[in-house]
Design a protein that fits this description.
By secondary structure, this protein is of the alpha+beta class. The chain has ten helices and ten strands.
Length: 265
């Protein structure tokens, strides 16, 4: 759907297909669309898609980059999920096998550990060693991204190899205008704008007909509240924090809490 088709859709909804003699201008409706799309792209996750960028290492090995440590991303980039250094693989104890890494070793060993105090102490030390050894193969790069300037700043260590950036980009506007949430949002905002316009002057139509502009404002506000709840409900958390070193202690109940307290101190 193009922006002109969306404008006509909004005008037909407001005027009930020309059933009433007033409407918003095309310029005002397009202003509302352009303004509200910036908010929807930031808050409505269905309007974003994953996009992978590859940055060649030659771009950030220059003195100019080292002075700012900044990359200028596209204007359609709304957020950054990951910045990973493209190394030649994760070696664990000299074994170059993608199926063997520190995370899998810790996850597999967690369920093989006997629930005895000596074994728990031994496993805790072993996991600490693996956690430290993992730093030699660390590929994640600490970063910061500003959605207003679209600048990606490398705040962690200086990478050596090329970078893979997993970004969240806007879907094309033509596809976003097809979304029913976007259409209903623009209609609700247009109703509120029309209410503000009609309420600025006190006048009646021919036949002494009074304009009930409050109806448009109330409809717009109720629709916006419903859509905000819908968007908030769809943007649920899809991650959680997991501390594998504490699971054996928790599994032992009160004894585990006592051991965990001694281990932490």
């Amino acid at each position: 759907m193009t922006i002109d088709e969306l404008v006509q859709e909004i005008k037909d909804e407001i005027s009930v297909s020309c059933g009433i003699p007033y409407n918003l201008s095309d310029k005002e409706i397009k202003r509302i669309i352009n303004k509200e799309m910036r908010w929807l792209y930031r808050e409505y996750r269905e309007l974003l898609q994953d996009h992978i960028y590859i940055l060649n290492k030659k771009y950030y090995q220059s003195p100019e980059w080292r002075a700012t440590r900044t990359f200028q991303m596209n204007k359609c980039t709304e957020g950054i999920k990951k910045v990973i250094e493209m190394t030649d693989g994760n070696r664990v104890f000299g074994i170059n096998d993608p199926d063997i890494n520190f995370d899998r070793l810790m996850a597999a060993d967690l369920y093989l550990t006997p629930l005895s105090s000596d074994q728990i102490t031994y496993r805790t030390i072993q996991w600490s060693f693996w956690d430290l050894a993992r730093g030699f193969n660390l590929r994640d790069i600490n970063h910061d991204f500003n959605p207003n300037t679209h600048r990606l700043i490398i705040t962690g260590r200086t990478p050596i190899e090329s970078l893979m950036i997993l970004a969240m980009d806007h879907i094309p506007l033509e596809d976003a205008y097809e979304d029913t949430i976007v259409i209903e949002w623009m209609i609700a905002k247009s109703k509120m704008s029309l209410s503000r316009l009609l309420g600025a002057f006190n006048y009646n139509l021919l036949g002494n007909i009074t304009i009930n502009y409050e109806q448009w404002r109330q409809e717009g506000e109720s629709e916006l509240e419903r859509l905000r709840e819908k968007i908030s409900g769809d943007n649920t958390t899809d991650w959680f924090l997991f501390f594998p070193a504490l699971v054996p202690f928790i599994s032992l109940g009160s004894l585990g809490l006592s051991l965990m307290s001694q281990w932490l101190h």
